[in-house]
Specification:
The protein contains three helices and seven strands. With 176 residues, the protein is α+β, with helices and mostly antiparallel strands. The chain has a five-stranded mixed barrel. Strands 6-7 form a two-stranded antiparallel ribbon.
Length: 176
């Protein structure tokens, strides 16, 4: 295959990936069945009675009334919501995810409340495991393949990438 054809193919694939990324970003707001925090901040009344999902920082907890006040961030500015049916044990400053029904006066009747724990040491672990996996995949790839700069292509190594073992299952006898 001619190198120019390969270059054109790679450029076409990169353009397709970028185009799909732009399309996803342009339609991101349509992916969630719940109103975004920006929509709640600007026109909350239009969403009263519908299901909602918000992530907020706990401001106050009233354990006797199973109620909490959370601060929800949005591009239009932070706003407070009262969560009814709040039974989680969270201190002020904790982050929660709340799913429920949106009520009048910025009230959310919770169906589910999940406490979001900080990442702690999980980020370095995730990056380390990903790096080890990437190194193993590259080692396995380059053990079997090599780059040919003249043909601008990857080709199989002459020895098959490993010590060749005889294929004992494919021997056919002359007897039939």
């Amino acid at each position: 295959m001619h190198p120019l054809v390969r270059v054109v193919g790679v450029v076409a694939l990169l353009c397709a990936v970028v185009g799909l990324g732009v399309h996803y970003d342009a339609t991101e707001d349509d992916h969630s069945p719940y109103p975004e925090s920006d929509a709640l901040a600007t026109d909350y009344g239009a969403h009263v009675g519908s299901d909602g999902f918000v992530i907020g920082t706990v401001e106050r907890v009233d354990a006797t009334a199973d109620r909490a006040t959370i601060s929800v961030e949005s591009d239009e500015g932070d706003f407070e919501m009262t969560v009814e049916g709040f039974t989680e044990r969270v201190q002020s400053g904790g982050v929660v995810q709340v799913h429920g029904t949106l009520g009048a006066d910025h009230t959310l009747v919770a169906a589910n409340v999940e406490v979001v724990n900080p990442a702690g040491g999980s980020k370095p672990y995730k990056y380390a495991v990903s790096a080890v996996g990437a190194v193993l995949v590259l080692a396995a790839f380059f053990r079997r393949w090599r780059f040919d700069p003249e043909g601008v292509a990857f080709e199989t190594r002459p020895d098959g990438g490993a010590e060749a073992e005889p294929d004992r299952g494919s021997e056919v006898s002359a007897d039939g």
